[in-house]
Amino acid sequence: MKYLNLILILCMTSFFSINSQAEWVLLGHTSVEKESLDARELKRLFFGRISQWDGGEPVKLCFLNDSNALVEYLGDSTKYSKKRFLAYWNSRLFSGDNIAPKQFRNSEELMDYVTRTRGAICIADPKAVPEGFSGKVIHIK
User: Fold this and answer.
1) What's the confidence (pLDDT) of residue 1?
2) CA count, 13 A, side-chain hemisphere, 92
3) Neighbours of 27 (CB within 10 A)
4) Residues 73-82: pLDDT tens digits?
5) Which of 21, 104, 117, 138 could share a disulfide with 110, CB 3.0–4.6 Å?
6) Which DSSP string corresponds to the chain?
7) Extents of the domains making up the chain
């Protein structure tokens, strides 16, 4: 009986950990040479610590303005709120360091930008990704 309870607990925790990963997806332009990123690289990208891809192409961050995907990523991985994240980028923008992430009002514009803009990368809601998306899905290690 003890083993049955332990197996049940393990199955439930693995189900919830898989389910929490499905709340956002990382998308990129086909020119992005990376097939996968680890959590540290992703954080460095979204906070402007990495501004160029390996091939020298500039990183162009973007996200859907009213999507929960960015909020989920920030909360789970960085402990930043969306407001704090945008304030961080505003301070970097005014200091002349980088270009702030581009924000979009709807998923169609976001997907169009990612598929047409070299170096583009975004965090999006998996439901917002259209069938036949011609960009790249980048896996998180």
Assistant:
1) 54
2) 16
3) 24
4) 888 888 888 8
5) 104
6) -HHHHHHHHHHHHHHHHHHHHTT-EEEE-TT---SEE-HHHHHHHHTTS--B-TTSPBPEEEEETT-HHHHHHIIIII---HHHHHHHHHHHHHTTS-PPPEEESSHHHHHHHHHHSTTEEEEE-GGGSPTT--SEEEEE-
7) 24-140
- Work out the pLDDT band at 102, boundaries 50, 70, 90: very high
* 113 pLDDT tier (thresholds 50, 70, 90): very high
Q: Please check the confidence at residue 12 and state whether its pLDDT lies above 70.
A: no
Residue 35 CB neighbours (<10 A): 10
Could you tell me if 126 and 22 are in contact, meaning their C-beta atoms sit under 8 angstroms apart?
yes
Lowest mean pLDDT among 33-37, 68-72, 102-106: 68-72
Report the topology of domain 24-140.
D-Maltodextrin-Binding Protein; domain 2 (3.40.190)
